Amino acid sequence: xxxxxxxxxxxxxxxxxxxxxxxxxxxxxxxxxxxxxxxxxxxxxxxxxxxxxxxxxxxxxxxxxxxxxxxxxxxxxxxxxxxxxxxxxxxxxxxxxxxxxxxxxxxxxxxxxxxxxxxxxxxxxxxxxxxxxxxxxxxxxxxxxxxxxxxxxxxxxxxxxxxxxxxxxxxxxxxxxxxxxxxxxxxxxxxxxxxxxxxxxxxxxxxxxxxxxxxxxxxxxxxxxxxxxxxxxxxxxxxxxxxxxxxxxxxxxxxxxxxxxxxxxxxxxxxxxxxxxx
Length: 278
Fold this sequence. Notes:
This protein has about 280 residues and is an alpha/beta fold.
């Protein structure tokens, strides 16, 4: 064993690195909106896709499936068997039957069973490419279906997009909605993003036989969260069997259920009011 004092070399100080500059390639998009949730399993992708279809009745809409590890939007829009093209060195988003174009990691992997095991830097790069290297053309709306929580992908979007109009927070009706909503609201506040509103998903099960609504997961947690934290309540979406069955078939519930269509049209109307009050 060597004698004498052991000298430990201290690592150099970590340089202070500021946020990346705003993108100069993401242009011609009137409104960019992040759809977020404080946790998984609240139906955020279902909300993102059906809200996009509702908006597309009057507007030109694109969807960025920003959930790199769990890309579901192509399946919900019925285009999971398609692939992307490249034109003039730009990625062309996949068109759907619902006047909504979409880009997703699901188009880039060999099969839907492929696991994407990427660190934060690679996920950041993928989101940056979805924003900058996709030929979005001129769009009224780009909706970003974010992964659960407030991790790397959400931070990437907030830092790169020149103007994020705000975030929509999806919660379920339980009392826990207050806690889940607060996490996403805190994220938006720290990054100076407007909370455009809260959507309460799975708000009552509508019996397909008698039409009666049963509050399986309670009711009103999202509305109470909106009231408590002083943000708009955009609306609630009931549990309807068509949401699941049609979604598995690649048909958005908006196009299959009058009840769901009415709910999303109300949410869209309230969203437009929230944008106008920005």
